[in-house]
Request: fold
Amino acid sequence: MGAGKSQCGSCRGNNELEILKKKARQLETMKDKLAHQIDCLDVTDELFEKKHDDMQARLENFYTNILLNSNKINEIVQRIENIEKEKVSSDNVYQFLMFFDKLYDKFTDTEKKQFMNSFIEKIEIFDEVQADGRFLKEITFKFPVFWNGKECNTISWDKETTVETVVLLCRKTPDDVTAK
Reply:
Protein backbone atom coordinates (compact mmCIF):
# COMPACT_ATOMS: atom_id res chain seq x y z
CA MET A 1 0.00 0.00 0.00
CA GLY A 2 1.18 3.61 0.55
CA ALA A 3 3.45 2.65 3.44
CA GLY A 4 6.30 1.57 1.15
CA LYS A 5 5.99 4.83 -0.73
CA SER A 6 6.03 6.79 2.52
CA GLN A 7 9.08 4.95 3.82
CA CYS A 8 10.91 5.64 0.57
CA GLY A 9 10.00 9.35 0.74
CA SER A 10 10.94 9.46 4.39
CA CYS A 11 14.33 7.80 3.70
CA ARG A 12 15.02 10.21 0.85
CA GLY A 13 14.13 13.11 3.16
CA ASN A 14 16.41 11.75 5.88
CA ASN A 15 19.29 11.50 3.40
CA GLU A 16 18.75 15.09 2.26
CA LEU A 17 18.55 16.16 5.89
CA GLU A 18 21.89 14.56 6.74
CA ILE A 19 23.55 16.26 3.75
CA LEU A 20 22.16 19.64 4.80
CA LYS A 21 23.19 19.14 8.43
CA LYS A 22 26.73 18.34 7.27
CA LYS A 23 26.70 21.49 5.14
CA ALA A 24 25.46 23.48 8.16
CA ARG A 25 28.40 22.23 10.25
CA GLN A 26 30.84 23.15 7.47
CA LEU A 27 29.36 26.63 7.08
CA GLU A 28 29.50 27.25 10.84
CA THR A 29 33.14 26.10 10.98
CA MET A 30 34.15 28.31 8.04
CA LYS A 31 32.26 31.28 9.54
CA ASP A 32 33.99 30.81 12.88
CA LYS A 33 37.42 30.59 11.23
CA LEU A 34 36.76 33.74 9.22
CA ALA A 35 35.56 35.58 12.34
CA HIS A 36 38.77 34.51 14.08
CA GLN A 37 40.84 35.79 11.11
CA ILE A 38 39.01 39.14 11.31
CA ASP A 39 39.85 39.32 15.02
CA CYS A 40 43.51 38.60 14.27
CA LEU A 41 43.93 41.32 11.63
CA ASP A 42 46.77 43.73 12.32
CA VAL A 43 45.24 47.19 12.79
CA THR A 44 48.57 48.79 11.88
CA ASP A 45 48.58 47.13 8.45
CA GLU A 46 48.06 49.73 5.71
CA LEU A 47 45.55 47.37 4.01
CA PHE A 48 43.64 46.71 7.25
CA GLU A 49 40.44 48.50 6.12
CA LYS A 50 40.35 46.73 2.73
CA LYS A 51 41.04 43.30 4.29
CA HIS A 52 38.48 43.93 7.04
CA ASP A 53 35.79 45.02 4.57
CA ASP A 54 36.51 42.03 2.30
CA MET A 55 36.39 39.56 5.20
CA GLN A 56 33.26 41.24 6.60
CA ALA A 57 31.50 40.81 3.22
CA ARG A 58 32.51 37.14 3.14
CA LEU A 59 31.27 36.72 6.73
CA GLU A 60 27.88 38.20 5.80
CA ASN A 61 27.76 35.79 2.86
CA PHE A 62 28.31 32.89 5.30
CA TYR A 63 25.43 34.14 7.47
CA THR A 64 23.17 34.29 4.40
CA ASN A 65 24.13 30.76 3.36
CA ILE A 66 23.63 29.49 6.92
CA LEU A 67 20.14 31.02 6.99
CA LEU A 68 19.22 29.53 3.58
CA ASN A 69 20.53 26.12 4.63
CA SER A 70 18.61 26.34 7.91
CA ASN A 71 15.40 27.12 5.99
CA LYS A 72 15.97 24.08 3.75
CA ILE A 73 16.51 21.91 6.85
CA ASN A 74 13.22 23.15 8.33
CA GLU A 75 11.37 22.41 5.07
CA ILE A 76 12.73 18.87 4.93
CA VAL A 77 11.92 18.22 8.61
CA GLN A 78 8.35 19.39 7.93
CA ARG A 79 8.14 17.18 4.81
CA ILE A 80 9.40 14.14 6.76
CA GLU A 81 6.83 14.78 9.50
CA ASN A 82 4.05 15.01 6.91
CA ILE A 83 5.20 11.76 5.28
CA GLU A 84 5.24 10.02 8.66
CA LYS A 85 1.74 11.31 9.46
CA GLU A 86 0.51 10.02 6.10
CA LYS A 87 2.18 6.66 6.75
CA VAL A 88 0.51 6.40 10.15
CA SER A 89 -2.84 7.10 8.50
CA SER A 90 -2.20 4.45 5.84
CA ASP A 91 -1.20 1.95 8.51
CA ASN A 92 -4.40 2.73 10.44
CA VAL A 93 -6.54 2.14 7.34
CA TYR A 94 -4.72 -1.14 6.71
CA GLN A 95 -5.38 -2.28 10.29
CA PHE A 96 -9.05 -1.34 9.94
CA LEU A 97 -9.30 -3.40 6.78
CA MET A 98 -7.70 -6.41 8.46
CA PHE A 99 -10.46 -6.50 11.08
CA PHE A 100 -13.22 -5.03 8.94
CA ASP A 101 -15.64 -7.93 9.15
CA LYS A 102 -15.41 -8.05 12.96
CA LEU A 103 -15.59 -4.32 13.61
CA TYR A 104 -17.89 -2.76 11.02
CA ASP A 105 -21.15 -4.19 12.35
CA LYS A 106 -20.32 -2.82 15.80
CA PHE A 107 -19.68 0.75 14.51
CA THR A 108 -22.15 3.56 15.10
CA ASP A 109 -23.26 5.47 12.00
CA THR A 110 -20.76 8.25 12.83
CA GLU A 111 -17.94 5.73 13.17
CA LYS A 112 -18.92 4.13 9.86
CA LYS A 113 -18.76 7.54 8.18
CA GLN A 114 -15.36 8.31 9.73
CA PHE A 115 -14.10 4.91 8.64
CA MET A 116 -15.21 5.45 5.06
CA ASN A 117 -13.76 8.99 5.04
CA SER A 118 -10.38 7.61 6.08
CA PHE A 119 -9.90 5.97 2.67
CA ILE A 120 -12.50 7.45 0.31
CA GLU A 121 -11.73 10.93 -0.97
CA LYS A 122 -14.84 11.47 -3.11
CA ILE A 123 -17.94 9.65 -4.35
CA GLU A 124 -19.92 10.83 -7.37
CA ILE A 125 -23.43 9.57 -8.06
CA PHE A 126 -25.69 9.89 -11.08
CA ASP A 127 -28.56 12.39 -10.81
CA GLU A 128 -30.97 9.53 -11.39
CA VAL A 129 -30.71 5.76 -11.13
CA GLN A 130 -29.52 4.40 -14.47
CA ALA A 131 -31.61 2.03 -16.63
CA ASP A 132 -29.40 -0.85 -15.52
CA GLY A 133 -29.94 0.05 -11.83
CA ARG A 134 -26.57 1.73 -11.24
CA PHE A 135 -26.38 4.94 -9.25
CA LEU A 136 -22.62 5.20 -8.57
CA LYS A 137 -20.69 7.19 -11.16
CA GLU A 138 -17.21 7.29 -9.60
CA ILE A 139 -15.29 6.61 -6.37
CA THR A 140 -11.94 8.32 -5.71
CA PHE A 141 -9.75 6.72 -3.03
CA LYS A 142 -7.00 8.34 -0.96
CA PHE A 143 -4.57 5.60 -2.02
CA PRO A 144 -4.08 3.38 -5.07
CA VAL A 145 -6.37 0.37 -5.56
CA PHE A 146 -6.33 -2.39 -8.15
CA TRP A 147 -9.21 -2.25 -10.62
CA ASN A 148 -9.51 -4.09 -13.94
CA GLY A 149 -5.94 -5.34 -13.67
CA LYS A 150 -4.27 -1.97 -13.08
CA GLU A 151 -3.47 0.37 -10.20
CA CYS A 152 -5.55 3.55 -9.96
CA ASN A 153 -7.01 5.98 -7.42
CA THR A 154 -10.38 6.31 -9.15
CA ILE A 155 -12.94 3.71 -10.16
CA SER A 156 -15.41 5.08 -12.68
CA TRP A 157 -18.60 3.51 -14.03
CA ASP A 158 -19.61 6.62 -15.97
CA LYS A 159 -18.97 5.28 -19.47
CA GLU A 160 -18.92 1.63 -18.61
CA THR A 161 -21.63 -0.95 -18.90
CA THR A 162 -21.66 -3.52 -16.18
CA VAL A 163 -23.83 -6.45 -15.34
CA GLU A 164 -24.69 -6.81 -11.71
CA THR A 165 -25.92 -10.10 -10.32
CA VAL A 166 -27.54 -10.79 -7.00
CA VAL A 167 -27.26 -14.32 -5.67
CA LEU A 168 -28.96 -15.82 -2.65
CA LEU A 169 -26.74 -18.27 -0.83
CA CYS A 170 -28.21 -20.64 1.69
CA ARG A 171 -26.40 -22.97 4.03
CA LYS A 172 -27.64 -26.52 3.82
CA THR A 173 -26.69 -29.39 6.03
CA PRO A 174 -26.11 -32.94 4.68
CA ASP A 175 -29.54 -33.88 6.08
CA ASP A 176 -31.23 -31.21 3.89
CA VAL A 177 -29.60 -32.61 0.75
CA THR A 178 -30.58 -36.25 1.44
CA ALA A 179 -34.15 -35.29 2.34
CA LYS A 180 -34.88 -34.23 -1.28
